Amino acid sequence: MAAPKRGRSASAQSKPGRSLALILIAIVALTGGMFLSGNKTPRLGIDLAGGTSITLKAKADQGSAVNKANMDTAVDIMNRRVNGLGVSEAEVQTQGTDNIIVNIPKGTNSKEAQQQVGTTAKLYFRPVLASEPSGGAAQSPSPSATPSGSSSPQPSTSPSASSSSSEKASSSSTASPTATATSQGRPVTDALKAGSTPTPSASASGSAKPSSTPSATPSASSSAGTAAAKLQAQYAALDCSKPAERAKVGGASKPGEPTVACGQIRKVWYKYVLGPAAVDGTEVKKAQAVFDTQGASGWQVQMTFSSSGAKKFADITGQLAKNQSPQNEFGIVLDGEVVSSPFVQGAITGGQAEISGSFTQQDAQSLANMLSYGALPLSFQEQSVTTVTAALGGQQLHAGLLAGAIGLALVVIYLVAYYRGLSIVAMASLLVSAILTYVIMSLLGPAIGFALNLPAVCGAIVAIGITADSFIVYFERIRDEIREGRSLRPAVERAWPRARRTILVSDFVSFLAAAVLFIVTVGKVQGFAFTLGLTTLLDVVVVFLFTKPLMTLLARRKFFANGHKWSGLDPKSLGAKPPLRRTRRPAGPATGSVDPKEA
Predict the structure, then answer these.
(1) Is the dihedral of CA 436, 438, 440, 443 positive or negative?
(2) pLDDT at 29 exceeding the cut of 90
(3) Average pLDDT for 370-389
(4) CB atoms closer than 10 angstroms to residue 465
(5) Average pLDDT of the segment spanning 229-241
(6) Which residues contact 165 (CB under 8 A, 6 or more apart)?
(7) Smallest Cα–Cα separation from 348: which of 333, 329, 365, 367?
(8) Model-level pTM greater than 0.85?
(9) Contact 182, 236 (CB under 8 A)
(10) Which ranges in 374-453 belong to alpha helices (H)?
(11) Who's near 368: CB < 8 A, 6+ residues apart?
(12) What burial class does residue 121 get, using C-beta atoms within 10 Å of its C-beta: 0-12 exposed, 13-18 middle, 19+ buried?
């Protein structure tokens, strides 16, 4: 039974090059992927690269109060919005009772995250009563304007609302035929007076359809007329090309009341008169951005409504389809701004709809992101926006790297002084571990949004000690075997099983601590835990695939095998016992016995 074991052991010892080739191929592949992806350095967090710090102050909203539960919900939603845009290392935390601090590092999508983080994302579907270009384009509409909604809806496998925005914004001077609503003054007023339902019942020509509801009292009629006239005057004076004007009308109305609003389509601002909200955005069950590969509508946002929302949406689209342009449109209003105004030609049933138009990929994903993660329970006002420079972070990074270099130098000095020639193995293993760590961190930036912050740098420095500890355990096991009188090659193989168990247990404890720390903490401390866990796993890979095979190869070299005094494995300096020799001596005759020759 002993011979087969020796055969397998000899076979394993004779092919350490396979493991070395494997780790070399892995390094080359990862490095090539790093250069091909264009990410040659790890992404840096806000404390090292700079970024933006935003202070938001909470305001009580209708039906909600500023309390701990609502603040925690808002922080959670903001975190998910930022992560949905691929911005990592962003910190969202409360300060006091009514403030939220958001730190967004520089990098891809950081500007979009800044725009979205405090957006309430209250969505309503409102019928359009009137619309026209606002600003310079509204004053000189083109005589040959294309009627809004004149094109056929985009084909779809499921009922969807096709946007008319592409027709509205064909040029900066293009206006729909309803652009004369402001000068005539009648269509808006008549539409508002037409009935008590949220569905517009006025035709495009401005004549209101008779309402079947009982006529209102004189005082109510007078009040409604005053409100309609006031809204008409506000609509006529509104210039959506001015940010100050847009800020006045954005989100100022209640869902059950008519309102005016602004919306930008292909860089052209439009102003709208909208009826009461017919469907609440909370009825949207799911939203996602998709690209229409079969049609020409480009990027779309597909929505799935809840059961109650599907019925409401079918009712409102069925009623709007009976009207003429623009009152066959419904405005999709997000935080008081019209993001799209699709027209309908029939009731959209089935609980699914598409928002299409002049969306870019970024616009579609941004809208779907906010709809998917829901509305904030509170309204927030931006108190301050501060740009954090990387100057201080650069100094901290320099200090951290200097500390790491000093620690590494001390480790190398210790290894050279105590282990001598074995220090070559240790330093080569540290170099391989450093290369793998750097390349993987560079690749994880675009892959999962990992950003290197100062605590993560500290985790990498701590990992130097963890990795060096694994080498020391193995070296000491080899020395123990040499002290027992064995030569180097058998000592290397016999020491490995014992050292392997110790290394795995030690690394398991370190990885478990890193995992627990990552789960129970937030913010920058997670960067320390993540880096510590990553480097611990790489330590196992390096020891198994590089350190052990390299030690096996060096054991065949005379410098190490003969125990040179600078090899670190000199039997005399280690106090080795004399080699165990099993010699058989001829046994002498027993007392009282007779020699056969003499017999």
Answers:
(1) negative
(2) yes
(3) 74
(4) 11
(5) 87
(6) 265, 266, 340, 341, 342, 357, 358
(7) 329
(8) no
(9) yes
(10) 391-419, 422-448
(11) 287, 288, 289, 301
(12) buried
pLDDT at residue number 557: 87
- Are 528 and 455 in contact by the 8 Å Cβ rule? The answer is yes
Number of H helices, E strands in the chain: 21, 15
**288 DSSP 8-state letter:** E
* The token pair that represents 419 in the structure block: 């282990």
What mean pLDDT do residues 124-133 have?
89
Is residue 27 pLDDT above 80, yes or no? yes
- 321 closest CA partner among 350, 295, 342: 342
> DSSP string of 331-386?
EEEETTEEEE-EE-SS---SSEEEEESS--HHHHHHHHHHHHH---SSEEEEEEEE
pLDDT tens-digit map of 179-208:
333 333 444 545 554 543 444 333 333 333
Q: Is 14 helix (H, G, I), strand (E, B) or coil?
A: coil
Average pLDDT estimate for 550-560: 89
Residue 575: C-alpha distances to residues 80, 105, 481, 483, 579 (Å): 62, 58, 11, 6, 12
Helix, strand, or coil (residue 172): coil
User: Which residue in 544, 555, 400 sits closest to 464, CA to CA?
Assistant: 400
How many Cβ atoms are within 10 Å of 291's Cβ, its own excluded? Answer: 11
Question: Rounded to an integer, what distance in angstroms lies between the CA atom of residue 498 and that of residue 195?
Answer: 87
Q: In Å, what is the CA distance from 177 to each residue of 150, 182, 185, 269, 325?
A: 11, 11, 14, 16, 9
Residue 201 near residue 316, CB atoms below 8 Å: no
